[in-house]
Amino acid sequence: MSKRRIIASDPGPARNEGAADTGGDSESVPREGALPQPAAPAPESLFPAFERYAREARLVESAKGALAARYPRILGQGRCKAEGLDRPPSALERRQEFVALDLRAEASVPQEVIAEQARAEEELKAEELTFGSEEGKRRLVVQALRLLSVPSGQKDNQTFAGRLILKGDKSGLQWSWNLTQYYPIVSRLPPDPRYIAWGHEAAESWLDRVRMEPQLFEERMGLAYVMAKYAAGTSEVLISDVARLYKVAAQGERFWNAPRRSNFEDLPDAAFIANLLSWRRSVGSSQPRYELVPSTVHQALGPKAKAFYIPTNAEGTEVRPVIYLRQRQDSTLPPRERGDATK
Fold first, then answer.
1. Are 180 and 158 in contact (CB under 8 A)?
2. Angle, alpha carbons 288-294-298 (nearest 5°)
């Protein structure tokens, strides 16, 4: 049985929500409401002494190499390091960049800047200790989920929000939103509730953008299947190979009109999984043209495991490993559509 903890808008007593699919109790906590998305404000002044020095010495204008990117980030300019999120650097990221600067090698650096960097280093160490603790991670997750407007909470020892799973690394300094726990969409998020909430919004928008009509997806998946089968030279086609070649088959008109690297969009595996789920739901009770073959324990967990994990519940906390994609051999289909190259 799985225990599901729901972050809900009603701060009333604990209630059994979703018991039909979890078999466990759930409890609700207050929600602060959906996160507004105003225009990005001016960067907060975190290091006033360094900012004055940067202006007077024209550090940004004269910087070269890695410093050309580091100086603006310290000042809150540019993008955060998160993959899939277009937001300014977080306070933690700015502090990390500032602490990494070797200021003592420069005789012209004012002592107040050196002292400011030392304070920033102490603050950074304290933050790393906080977010590295289990309590720090728990508080961060609760704060972030309260900013979301979708059902969220804990289930099967995983944190979910809508159809996405939130994962943090061991240090607690990087977080990601994933389709099941295996397929990241937005990653390297800083430990900031706002950024985690923004990351969820970005991941949901990305899923909506890459989703195809089921019939079109079946055609693209069929193209990927044919390519994978040709490359493998065997009757059994690994679904991991189909997913890899789907990244080519799913390219838009821009790429096919001018097939070059600059027009190629690198799609995460989550794009294939999301469309596969939508396609399977559209098929319903009818017999689909393609079937998924469950994997054995060795195929799913061995050192050379190539299984794909398909979510079996709405939140994505439960998965089923599959290993092959098979095309149904239907005699009513033309030989070409059956994949029969001998006829």
1. no
2. 160
Q: Which helix (H) or strand (E) holds 113?
A: helix 111-132
Whether residues 115 and 246 share a domain: the answer is: no
CA dist., res. 148 & res. 139, Å (int): 15
pLDDT tens, position by position, 141-153: 999 999 999 999 9
> pLDDT tens digit string along 193-218?
999 999 999 999 999 999 999 999 99
Q: How many domains does the chain have?
A: 2
Strand order in the sheet with 5-7: 28-29, 5-7, 152-155, 158-161, 164-168, 175-179, 183-189
Q: Measuring CA to CA, which residue among 101, 111, 107 is closest to residue 63?
A: 101
User: Between the CA of residue 269 and those of 66, 89, 316, what are the distances in Å?
Assistant: 31, 27, 15
300 assigned to some structural domain: yes
pLDDT bucket at 329, cuts 50 / 70 / 90: confident
* Domain span holding position 182: 31-206
pLDDT at 2: 44
